[in-house]
Q: What sequence folds into this?
C-alpha cells in the first residue's frame, strides 16, 4: 500500500512539474503579448492602399518569410513613412539581403524595419558615407538623437538587396529579444481581406512501423477542397472513407489569398481536431531568429525538393522548439487504436478571421503489421518540458 502511494505521489509530482512548464511557457508568452500591444497607434508605411505580395511566416527553404511584402505598383520611388512614433535606431546598407534598410524603434518595445529601399530620406542619407560601390554599412543611433513621428517620411522605396522586383519589405521585431513579429497585428485593419485560406491536398504520414494508413506505411497524398481558389469560406467534407491503424501524422498543402492580387500567402493558423478535441494548433505570430531553420522540420522539406510544394505538418516532430506549434504529449500524432470511425477536422484561419473547414472520416482498422507504440514516457515528457522552456528570443544582429 505504501509503495502504491509513493508511486502515485511521484506521478502527481511529475504531472505538476509538466503543468508548471506549460504555465511558465504560456504566461511568458502572454505577458510579452500584453506588453507589445500597448496604446501606440500604428499607421500605413505608404500613402496608397496596401496590397501584399507576401505575408509573415511563409515557409521557404531554411527560413520563414520575416515580414510583409507590400506592393509598390512594380515601381521604385514611392514615399515610405514610419508606422508609429519612435526614433531611428539604425541604418544598414548591403546587409542581410535587405539592400538599404532603416530601423525605427518604438516605445511599445517593437522595432520596425523597412527594406529594399532606393535611398533614405535626405536627413538620414547625410549620416552615412557611401563609396559608390558595393557598400556594407551599419550605423547605430542612440534613443535621443533621431526622434520620428508616425507618418513622417523616412525613405524612398526601391529594389535593392535580394529583391526580385520593386516593393517594400516591412518587418516588426521585439526590440529586446529580436524575435520576429507579425506586422498584421498592427496593420490588419488597413488591409481589406474577406478571402479565406484554402487547402489543396492532404498528406498522411504513418510513423514508421508504428502506423499505417489505407494499409500502407508510406506517405500518401489526397486532393482536398474545391476547385476555386478564392472563396470567402469553405466547409468541405471528403467523401472517401479512409482506414488507419497505429500512429499517423497529417499535413496540409494550403495557401491564403487576398483581394485584387494573384499572390499566395502562408497560413496564419491551422488547427486539427479529432472527434471535436483539439490535438494540434499552429499560430504564426512570433518566430525566434534561431528557429528559422526549423521550417524544414515543420514542412516536408524532402517533398518540397521534389515538387516545390510545402506540406505543413499538423504535428510537432521530435526536438522541434518552434513556439508557434502547440500540441500535447502525443505531439499532434493520432493513435488509431480502436476499431471505430474517427472524425478529423482541419480549420484554417487568417489574421482577419476568414476561415475554412475540412472534414474527413478515418476508420480504425486493425493491422497486424503495425507495431505497438510505447506511449508517452518519462523521456518524452522531459523533451516536451524542454520545448516549453525554449525562449522566444534569439540574437541581436
A:
Amino acid at each position: 500500500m505504501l509503495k502504491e502511494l509513493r508511486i502515485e505521489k511521484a506521478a502527481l509530482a511529475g504531472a505538476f512539474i509538466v503543468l508548471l512548464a506549460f504555465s511558465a511557457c504560456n504566461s511568458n508568452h502572454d505577458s510579452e503579448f500584453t506588453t507589445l500591444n500597448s496604446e501606440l497607434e500604428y499607421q500605413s508605411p505608404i500613402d496608397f492602399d496596401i496590397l501584399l505580395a507576401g505575408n509573415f511566416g511563409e515557409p521557404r527553404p531554411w527560413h520563414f518569410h520575416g515580414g510583409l511584402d507590400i506592393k509598390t505598383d512594380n515601381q521604385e520611388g514611392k514615399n515610405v513613412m514610419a508606422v508609429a512614433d519612435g526614433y531611428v535606431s539604425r541604418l544598414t546598407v548591403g546587409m542581410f539581403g535587405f539592400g538599404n534598410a532603416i530601423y525605427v524603434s518604438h516605445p511599445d518595445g517593437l522595432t520596425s524595419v523597412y527594406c529594399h529601399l532606393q535611398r533614405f530620406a535626405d536627413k538620414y542619407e547625410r549620416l552615412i558615407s557611401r563609396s559608390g560601390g558595393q557598400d556594407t554599412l551599419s550605423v547605430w543611433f542612440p534613443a535621443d538623437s533621431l526622434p520620428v513621428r508616425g507618418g513622417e517620411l523616412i525613405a524612398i522605396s526601391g529594389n535593392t538587396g535580394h529583391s526580385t522586383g520593386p516593393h517594400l519589405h516591412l518587418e516588426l521585431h521585439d526590440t529586446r529579444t529580436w524575435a520576429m513579429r507579425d506586422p498584421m497585428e498592427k496593420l490588419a485593419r488597413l488591409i481589406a481581406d474577406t478571402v479565406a485560406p484554402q487547402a489543396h491536398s492532404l498528406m498522411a504520414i504513418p510513423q514508421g512501423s508504428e502506423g499505417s494508413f489505407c494499409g500502407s506505411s508510406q506517405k500518401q497524398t489526397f486532393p482536398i477542397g474545391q476547385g476555386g481558389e478564392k472563396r470567402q469560406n469553405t466547409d468541405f467534407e471528403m467523401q472517401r472513407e479512409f482506414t488507419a491503424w497505429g500512429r499517423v501524422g497529417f499535413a496540409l498543402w494550403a495557401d491564403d489569398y487576398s483581394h485584387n492580387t494573384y499572390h499566395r500567402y502562408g497560413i496564419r493558423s491551422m488547427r486539427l481536431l479529432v472527434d471535436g478535441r483539439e490535438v494540434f494548433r499552429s499560430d504564426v505570430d512570433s518566430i525566434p531568429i534561431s528557429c528559422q531553420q526549423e521550417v524544414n522540420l515543420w514542412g516536408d522539406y524532402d517533398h518540397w525538393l521534389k515538387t516545390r510544394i510545402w506540406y505543413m505538418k499538423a504535428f510537432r516532430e521530435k526536438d522541434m522548439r518552434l513556439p508557434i506549434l502547440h500540441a500535447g504529449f502525443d505531439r499532434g500524432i493520432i493513435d488509431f487504436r480502436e476499431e471505430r470511425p474517427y472524425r478529423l477536422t482541419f480549420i484554417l484561419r487568417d489574421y482577419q478571421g476568414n476561415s475554412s473547414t475540412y472534414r474527413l472520416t478515418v476508420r480504425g482498422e486493425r493491422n497486424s503489421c503495425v507495431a505497438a507504440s510505447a506511449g508517452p514516457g518519462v523521456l518524452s515528457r522531459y523533451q516536451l518540458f524542454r520545448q516549453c522552456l525554449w525562449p522566444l528570443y534569439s540574437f541581436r544582429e
In short: The first helix runs from residue 2 to 35.
